[in-house]
Amino acid sequence: MPRIQSVVIHCRDPYLLAPFWSLATGLPVHPDDVKALASHSLDEDESVLLGARDGFHVWITPAAELKPVGRIHVDVTGEG
User: Fold this and answer.
1) Confidence of residue 6 (pLDDT cuts 50, 70, 90)
2) Among 57, 61, 58, 69, which residue's Cα sits nearest to residue 13?
3) What interhelical angle do 14-25 and 31-38 show, nearest 10?
């Protein structure tokens, strides 16, 4: 049965939005990304992971251009 695997949120500033969405969703920033957020050392196109890859998770993904639609999308998997 299909299920939602993750939500991807496109934004201009992951340093600002990752902490916000972490609080809003109750999903912690992944330990691998905590240091990068604190030191502002994300690569230009590097996403921030909230939660864990083996469960439901959210990606905060930088985008240079934000169109009115498509700022948030879900990734669906067919695996149970």
Assistant:
1) very high
2) 61
3) 140
Break the chain down into helix, strand, coil percent, rounded to 5.
25, 30, 40
Q: What order do you get walking across the sheet with 3-11 strand by strand?
A: 48-51, 57-62, 3-11, 72-77
How far is 58 from 8, CA to CA, in rounded Å? 6
Residues in the chain: 80
Q: How many CA atoms lie within 13 A of 24 on its CB side?
A: 9
In the numeric block, the tokens 């700022």 are attached to 71
* Termini Cα distance of the chain: 6
Structure tokens belonging to residue 3: 């299920």
The residue whose two tokens read 């949120």 is 9
Does the predicted model carry a pTM greater than 0.90? no
